Write a sequence for this structure.
């Protein structure tokens, strides 16, 4: 059992950097200090973009309105950046604003890993979005896990059909999703300092899973 | 490793002689019940008893103390019904005369607060010091059918067979034995782990996995002190034999709320469920399912694929059984064209022509065994479910008990019906043996009228008569999952 006070969370770019080390596909991002740089980054990614406050002490950003989605022009980017920096509290340890391209897709999943006091390192996969905790349509495996285990995690979901071709979107690349789950297992086994990882959400973009946001809890 | 385990557990499950410590003359006391159950079940080894007053119970002369037992008496197991306070001296005396295993029914240990926990730790240390294999304490006993040993403070004595049971709750041993007795699908070993102070559920499962009398293990577990250890050892068990687990206590311990969703969503039963799939454990979610699945493993071969044919003479049951398959990994296979042509010659034109194969009341004397053999033998069929056995025998029973039961025509049809149902049951077992494919027979008569000739013939054939089509589907699904698990494990080895 790890108490909250003994751990800290990595900033969003740090979290994504860790996932990229394990070949988990993540959305691109650029950390900027102010509105001008934000506009430049947005121009490079192409519109629309997403802006979020970045900081080592930040969790549950959506609840505090620190995520601005679907911003479509330079003026809005500039204003959103200024607003976010102004909303930062000292305990957030804000270090700038993150700009990312807005990626479209109607299906979202959640994946993660953590250390259980009885079963040891575990990997979780489930239905994402706002109903994640209410529906708790999730499955677990102990780490490390193999391809067969990861495929089983997907087919065990009540909402497993969402992984098939649905509402005009192609079927999810299960092989790639399986690889993400297997790699989460590798990560939690290899990195002793990591207490837990949440990838929330994994959005399905043209059938490919892409990590949009991640929260990594580590021992200091 | 296997050989060592068999030797290690021999004094517990294959003792040459048993001593009941704390025999009582009162039939309401455990010390009497145990002796009664051992003596009445046909155990051929030596049976001795102690009671601090001496005397005679059930024809056995009791010794006042273990030290009074003559040296030539051969005893490997002591079954302890004495109070916790007297057990230290008892075990020391037992060790001195070479007793290698002890089953303790005594309460007042780990389940009884801090003092009890201390006493339990001391008990384990003592057993280690004396090199005595310690089962319990606070358990209900054990059964070992190959040597006809029923050393339990509860009933029943199950028939012999291939299911090995271990339970953290004594009454679940009884429950599973009751199912075994009713179904006539027998047990090899059974033990109530009690507080599992020394020998744990995983220890018994290790033994069962190498026990030549056991084909499948069935465990009831509640709290697992070390989930990772349970997982790793379960994997070793399932690498050899199927393991069915019923887990009680689905509640969350609530201590895990971390900052992450993953931690917040993690609950014992959810992780357990995933762990079970990963370890190749057949996790059951009810007592009935746990026994159904164990009986299926004990009496059916593993399917080599997911394609199931349902053969039925009762339309509705075929439909709900097919419905049940949609929640499984099994496949309700289309009837292959060549098979359809063959069946066409055997059934009236109105037969279903799809799966379930509904005979549409067009059966002649030989239809069922013939069609069963044809479909089971087809390379695109991996398993068969047969529904509708016992219907005619049920009418036979009504004839027999009715006012015209002695009419010669009625008597003749009674005999015919019962003979036919028995033939069908036997055909299912024989065709399964010949093809190496599972053929599951299901009818509610298995519960509502166990004396039904069809049901009885299924039992006599050594198979399990499932109480319904959907329950057979759930069991077969576990067999198919285990079959895949073994195949995968062998490939990645």
């Amino acid at each position: 059992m790890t108490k909250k006070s003994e751990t800290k969370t990595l900033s969003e770019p740090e979290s994504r950097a860790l996932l990229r080390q394990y070949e988990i596909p993540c959305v691109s991002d650029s950390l900027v200090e102010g509105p001008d740089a934000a506009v430049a980054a947005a121009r490079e990614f192409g519109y629309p973009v997403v802006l979020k406050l970045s900081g080592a002490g930040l969790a549950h950003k959506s609840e505090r309105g620190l995520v601005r989605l679907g911003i479509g022009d330079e003026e809005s980017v500039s204003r959103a950046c200024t607003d976010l920096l102004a909303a930062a509290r000292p305990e957030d340890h804000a270090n700038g604003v993150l700009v990312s391209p807005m990626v479209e897709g109607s299906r979202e999943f959640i994946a993660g890993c953590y250390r259980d006091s009885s079963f040891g390192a575990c990997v979780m996969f489930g239905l994402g979005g706002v109903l994640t905790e209410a529906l708790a349509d999730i499955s677990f495996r102990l780490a490390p896990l193999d391809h067969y285990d990861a495929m089983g995690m997907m087919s065990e979901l009540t909402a497993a059909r969402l992984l098939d071709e649905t509402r005009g979107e192609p079927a999810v690349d299960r092989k790639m999703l399986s690889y993400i789950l297997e790699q989460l297992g590798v990560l939690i086994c290899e990195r002793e300092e990591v207490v837990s990882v949440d990838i929330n959400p994994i959005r399905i973009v043209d059938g490919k899973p892409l990590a949009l946001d991640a929260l990594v809890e580590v021992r200091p | 490793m296997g050989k060592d385990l068999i030797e290690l557990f021999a004094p517990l499950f294959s003792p040459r002689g048993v001593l009941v410590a704390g025999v009582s003359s009162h039939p309401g006391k455990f010390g009497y019940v145990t002796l009664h159950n051992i003596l009445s079940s046909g155990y051929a080894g030596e049976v001795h008893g102690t009671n601090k007053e001496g005397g005679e119970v059930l024809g056995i002369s009791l010794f006042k103390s273990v030290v009074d037992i003559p040296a030539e008496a051969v005893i490997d197991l002591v079954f302890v019904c004495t109070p916790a306070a007297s057990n230290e001296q008892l075990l020391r005396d037992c060790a001195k005369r070479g007793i290698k295993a002890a089953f303790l029914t005594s309460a007042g240990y780990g389940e009884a607060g801090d003092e009890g926990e201390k006493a339990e730790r001391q008990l384990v240390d003592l057993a280690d010091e004396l090199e005595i294999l310690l089962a319990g304490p606070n358990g209900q006993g054990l059964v070992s059918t190959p040597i006809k040993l029923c050393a339990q403070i509860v009933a029943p004595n199950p028939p012999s067979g291939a299911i090995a049971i271990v339970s953290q709750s004594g009454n679940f041993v009884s429950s599973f034995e009751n199912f075994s007795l009713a179904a006539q699908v027998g047990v090899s070993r059974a033990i109530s782990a009690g507080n599992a102070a020394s020998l744990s559920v995983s220890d018994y499962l290790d033994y069962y996995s190498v026990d030549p009398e056991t084909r499948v293990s069935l465990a009831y577990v509640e709290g697992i002190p070390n989930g990772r250890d349970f997982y790793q050892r379960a994997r070793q068990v399932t690498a050899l034999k199927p393991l069915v687990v019923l887990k009680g206590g689905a509640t969350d311990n609530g201590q895990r709320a971390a900052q992450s969703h993953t931690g917040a969503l993690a609950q014992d039963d959810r992780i357990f469920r995933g762990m079970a799939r990963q370890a190749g454990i057949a996790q059951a979610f009810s007592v009935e399912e746990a026994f159904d699945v164990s009986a299926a493993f004990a009496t059916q071969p593993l399917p080599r694929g997911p394609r199931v044919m349902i053969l039925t003479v009762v339309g509705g049951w075929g439909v709900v059984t097919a419905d049940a398959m949609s929640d499984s990994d099994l496949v309700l296979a289309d009837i292959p064209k060549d098979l359809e042509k063959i069946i066409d010659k055997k059934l009236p034109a109105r037969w279903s022509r799809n799966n379930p194969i509904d005979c549409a009341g067009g059966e002649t004397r030989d239809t069922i065994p013939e069609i069963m053999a044809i479909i089971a033998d087809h390379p695109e069929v991996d398993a068969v479910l047969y529904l509708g056995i016992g219907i005619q025998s049920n009418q036979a029973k009504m004839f027999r008990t009715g006012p015209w039961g002695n009419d010669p025509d009625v008597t003749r049809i009674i005999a015919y019906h019962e003979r036919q149902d028995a033939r069908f049951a036997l055909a299912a077992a024989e065709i399964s043996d010949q093809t190496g494919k599972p053929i599951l027979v299901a009818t509610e008569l298995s519960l509502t009228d166990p004396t039904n000739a069809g049901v009885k013939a299924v039992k006599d054939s050594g198979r399990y008569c499932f109480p319904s089509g959907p329950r057979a589907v759930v069991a077969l699904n576990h067999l198919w999952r285990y079959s895949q698990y073994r195949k995968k494990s062998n490939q990645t080895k």
